[in-house]
Specification:
Layout (H helix, E strand, L loop, with lengths): L3 H4 L9 H12 L5 H21 L8 H13 L4 H22 L24 H8 L10 H16 L3 H5 L1 E2 L4 E2 L2 E2 L2 E4 L4 E5 L5 E5 L2 H13 L10 H5 L12 H14 L8 H16 L2 H8 L4 H4 L1 H17 L8
Parallel strand pairs: 1-4
Antiparallel strand pairs: 2-3, 4-5, 5-6
Helix pairs in contact: 2-3, 3-5, 7-9, 7-12, 12-15
GO molecular function: DNA binding; tyrosine-based site-specific recombinase activity
GO biological process, one term: cell division
Family: Belongs to the 'phage' integrase family. XerC subfamily.
Length: 329
């Protein structure tokens, strides 16, 4: 349950020109997602409000002030993860702005949020994933929307994509009329090329089951396409009912509905399939670097959390199979 102080909205006053310019830089040059930009904008508003209350111009804020601001937000109920996101936004802003105005250094450098216990990502078992994807033929209808949904689920699990990467995929690489693909499907190579966090591009293989589902969807895709669509919508791999690029919310709702109909005993959202992909590949291949590359993690420590899931899997197998395990599951 959220804390009222933690969920409070920042003041809605316009941001200073420097902050607005940084957000435009992230949008234009780094191609950050609207969701990420909204989060950064929110955290910059908190910084502006705290600085105003302290009577400090942004270029006069020092490391000690930042620590005071963080302590205040923590006292108001902001948790470690929330504060880490706050500091990431502030640090990024000053890293960009400080050289431009010749500040001596980044006032956020070295400031860290309190440590939070890191929970394990939620992943389906192999059996649950198969129940989700290998539904009875009667449940997998042949109309375009149903074939699209099956292709999306197969691709999420096959390639471990983020939701934003999935909906950003184009049918093929396009560059025309001022539009250029950020991510696309390569049928010939059986891979997807995606633009992940921080504008980092990567190629991820697509398995045979996903390729089969994608071909079935592509065959009926023209039934949902619009002749009058914008270049961005016309290029999209996955389309919604109105012929435009499918929205993240529709993907979330469709996945939850299909999982419930398949009898999966847990709430399933797109990131659960990403976690399941990573966990299952690691269980089989034991290649942490390969999983890191396919997931697009900048730091291998982010990927290492899946080794804990793998250990849980091995521990359960030991408890069930070893005649003298003598352990409680």
């Amino acid at each position: 349950m959220g804390n009222a102080a933690q969920d409070a909205d920042p003041p809605e006053a316009p941001l200073p020109d420097a902050m607005s310019a940084w957000l435009r830089h992230l949008e234009t040059n780094r191609r950050y997602s609207p969701h990420t930009l909204d989060g950064y904008r929110r955290e910059l508003r908190f910084l502006r409000a705290l600085a105003d209350k302290a009577g400090l111009p942004l270029d006069k804020i020092g490391n000690g002030h930042i620590r005071q601001f963080v302590a205040r937000l923590h006292a108001e109920g902001r948790g470690p993860r929330s504060l880490a996101r706050t500091l990431a936004a502030w640090r990024g802003f000053y890293q960009w702005w400080a050289p431009a105005i010749e500040l001596a250094g980044n006032p956020v450098a070295g400031v860290r949020a309190p440590k939070a216990p890191r929970g394990l990502p939620k992943a389906l078992s192999v059996e649950q994933t198969q129940a989700l994807l290998d539904r009875a033929p009667a449940q997998v209808a042949t109309e375009p929307a149903a074939l699209r949904d099956q292709a999306m689920l197969e691709l999420l699990y096959s390639s471990g994509l983020r939701l934003s990467e999935l909906v950003g995929l184009d049918l093929r690489y396009e560059r025309a009329g001022g539009y250029e693909s950020r991510g696309w499907l390569s049928l010939d190579e059986a891979e997807v090329i995606v633009l992940g966090k921080g504008g980092k591009r990567r190629s991820v293989p697509v398995g045979q089951a996903a390729m089969d589902a994608l071909r079935k969807w592509i065959a009926v895709r023209p039934q949902l396409a619009l002749f009058t669509a914008s270049p961005e919508d016309a290029a999209a791999l996955f389309l919604g009912a109105r012929g435009r690029r499918i929205s993240p919310r529709v993907v979330q709702l469709q996945l939850a509905r299909i999982a419930q109909a398949a009898g999966v005993p847990t709430h399933v959202h797109p990131h659960v399939l990403r976690h399941s992909f990573a966990s299952h590949v690691l269980q089989s291949a034991q290649d942490l670097r390969a999983v890191q590359e396919m997931l697009g993690h900048a730091n291998i420590s982010t990927t290492q959390v899946y080794t804990r899931l793998d250990f849980q899997h091995l521990a359960r197998a030991y408890d069930q199979a070893h005649p003298r395990a003598g352990r409680k599951s």
